[in-house]
Write a structure and sequence with these properties.
Shape: elongated
Structural class: alpha+beta
Distance between the termini: 50 Å
Mean pLDDT: 80
Length: 310
């Protein structure tokens, strides 16, 4: 058990959490509330006393009061807004050519461990929120990717596995694609975070091996692609489906249907769909468009294979 509260310097406290102390188990958070009672409440402990019957002493189980409680504390299970809290305290990552140095709009993001120490919820809930947004750590600083960055990484990863002839539905080595993805500017911890997101629940990326789950991967890619369109005027459903299917292995294409994304989009007139609902990737203003050219160059090796069979 641990007693925690949000750091008073964290602006996310008033917006997403309570400023009061909470009691945490490994995977659950409880609000603490003081309760008054008109009844007398005592703390007791087991004891025994002897009674005499016909000159024979017999032990009799009993209880002894050792203290009186003027008030009690009540524990109330809560469901903290972990993702919303982390969105406000972790710096967004959008530029694959970035140098991971603090920028003018930096939020003072710290390491994962430092963020956890101030987060007013349990370790398990923190880890779930961290994984949901594919957050990662570089040089002791936490980062959360935008939908544009997630989509860019997936395209780089898909090109890499195509070149290597890797079936992502079977166990493969991360090292086999790590170097090619890094040449596009995406850091290794980001790749690992994304693969952990689309791996089966039982997969823990031990020994550098991973396999992707079709049931998790297909809807996640569709959601990220749809979210990356959110600042535009929507997209034709048929066109979106084609683009979505193009980002999947051949055997998975038929599973990319709008029914899979039910509740995450809304339909407009003339067959236009727009992003809506809750998703795993993090929406932020201005991040759905490609990053501007910073003058840095990268070896876009996968462009040579843009027409490879998907």
């Amino acid at each position: 058990l641990s007693l925690k509260s949000a750091a008073t310097s964290t602006s996310a406290v008033t917006a997403t959490t309570t400023s009061h102390a909470v009691l945490c188990t490994y995977d659950q958070t409880f609000q603490i509330r003081q309760v008054q009672s008109s009844n007398s409440i005592y703390v007791v402990k087991p004891s025994q006393r002897d009674i005499s019957l016909n000159a024979v002493d017999f032990p009799l189980p009993s209880a002894s009061a050792i203290a009186q409680c003027k008030a009690t504390l009540e524990l109330i299970p809560t469901s903290p807004s972990v993702t919303l809290y982390l969105e406000q305290v972790i710096t967004i990552y959008n530029d694959p050519q970035g140098d991971f140095e603090p920028g003018p709009d930096d939020k003072g993001s710290r390491s994962k461990l430092a963020l956890l120490s101030d987060a007013p919820f349990s370790i398990g809930e923190f880890d779930n929120g961290w994984s949901e947004m594919c957050a990662f750590e570089i040089r002791g600083r936490a980062w959360r990717p935008s939908s544009a960055a997630l989509l860019g990484l997936w395209k780089s990863f898909k090109s890499a596995v195509t070149v290597k002839g890797i079936d992502i539905g079977e166990v493969f080595s991360i090292d086999g694609v790590h170097q090619l993805v890094q040449e596009d500017g995406y850091p290794g911890p980001f790749l690992v975070a994304m693969l952990a997101k689309v791996a089966p629940d039982s997969e823990n990326l031990m020994d550098g091996l991973v396999v992707t789950s079709r049931d998790k991967c297909v809807p996640w890619i569709g959601t990220v692609m749809l979210e990356s369109q959110q600042e535009r005027e929507g997209i034709q459903a048929s066109r979106f489906l084609q683009q979505w299917q193009d980002q999947l292995p051949e055997a998975w294409r038929r599973h990319a249907t709008l029914e899979t994304l039910k509740g995450k989009y809304s339909e407009q007139k003339d067959g236009i769909i727009i992003f809506g609902g809750s998703v795993d990737a993090t929406p932020t203003p201005g991040t759905s468009t490609p990053a501007k050219d910073t003058g840095k160059t990268a070896r876009k090796w996968h462009e040579k294979f843009k027409y490879a069979r998907r």
